[in-house]
Design a protein that fits this description.
93 residues; mainly beta; five-stranded antiparallel beta sheet; 49% strand
Length: 93
Amino acid sequence: TTNIEPDGTALSNGQVSVDATAGGTTIIAASAGRQGITITNQGSVACYVGTGTVIMVNGFLLNAGESIALPTDSEVKAITASGSTTIGYLAYA
């Protein structure tokens, strides 16, 4: 869904199930003009987050319950070492 804040910023949010799929699961597609995204690991399994193809050695570690803000308009992906977790996100343009 998309909401417009009083300052004109467009917000969109959602949830994605992430697992050990090779290359990572897309959390949000690239979007020219997006100012950034805040991601929260809402599950119980650690995951790795990043842009482009994500593997455990090039992604940011995001433990259960942790959040990270990324100032990017690129595609953002995540991957787990094993098992699955739920990622919540809030993107702002």
